[in-house]
Amino acid sequence: VLHQETLRISRLVNDRNMYEAVADSLMKLLNYDYISMYHFDKNEHEWIEDLKHYPIEKQVMTKMRWSQSPWMFDSLFKELKINNAMKILTTDSVDSIIQYINQLDLNVYMIDIFLDDGNPSMIVELHKTNQFSKYDKYLLTNYITSFLSIVMPHVYLTSELYVMWNKNELNTELVAYHMKITDNEVNQLVDHTIKNLTDLHPNFNEITFLTRNVNEQDSIIAIMIMFNQLGFIKHWNIQRSTLACFILTVKKNYRTPTYHDWTHAFTVGHMAYVALNIESTLMNQYLDKIEQLTLFVGALCHDIDHRGFNNNYQTLIQSPLAAIYGYKGSILEHHHVDQTM
């Protein structure tokens, strides 16, 4: 049975169901009630919950994450009413905690899987209303642990490839949509003749100014002047051609949905500029120069490449964006940050 299940799982290529497929395989061998699975993300240094109480709970795309690894056992310790839980969680390693839980002879059994560096990389947590029998533990120790050590690395690597494939599809689509900035466009922006923002409108520096009174071409020039007015060009020794290319690229990376377009970005950028430029806001006292630059760039880029549809829609249509960022939650927000960087 284990051999057949190993072959079945090895043929799966869709990340969305692979963890559930492993759980279903274990159900054929052990009559457990529900299962949870975790893996360690080395890039983020976090434990991520891949399955939660499957199959009794509906699985969601947004996954729980823990940067302090033992704390993912906090809710389990509370459920089991384990004494000295705080001490154990703050002092013991993940491997030690798993051994401790398994020795309690309760209705929980945990398996840790080591991939390459000697530290647990994946954890399987099984729950059973009646305590696991000696035969159950015999299977778990002698067969199922080996089975999981074979299939779980495949599941993990396939899920990574699934994300990479969707990123590639997304990047291909982005390249097709966004055109390269030409030298002529950069030179025109660098050589603009408008010197002051008040030349665009007398009330431009006021917080009540309506940005729709500035046309699209002038809005790009206005951003260039704002960078200079806020002292960023001089402080960071930014080449004007580089800045012009950046501004034009940001502009072209905004699509044309009803609301989250370049006009919206320019409006939010204007608000950030006014807040940083007016002495009465005291922003300069609380933010250093890098924080001011971050605020202004963040305001300009905060909705970059927005498609006009919300996170829930991305999840429902199983878009490449949802495949890449869904487990983190805030799908579009993570995409805006990645595109900005």
TrEMBL record:
Keywords: Hydrolase, Metal-binding. Residues 182-341 form the PDEase domain. One of its GO terms (molecular function) is 3',5'-cyclic-nucleotide phosphodiesterase activity. Zn(2+) 2 binds at D303. SUPFAM superfamilies: HD-domain/PDEase-like. Zn(2+) 1 binds at H264, H302, D303. Pfam families: PDEase_I. One of its GO terms (biological process) is signal transduction. Gene3D superfamilies: 3'5'-cyclic nucleotide phosphodiesterase, catalytic domain. Transmembrane segments: none annotated. The keyword Hydrolase applies. It comes from the Eukaryota. The active site is at H260. This is cGMP-dependent 3',5'-cyclic phosphodiesterase. It comes from Schistosoma japonicum.
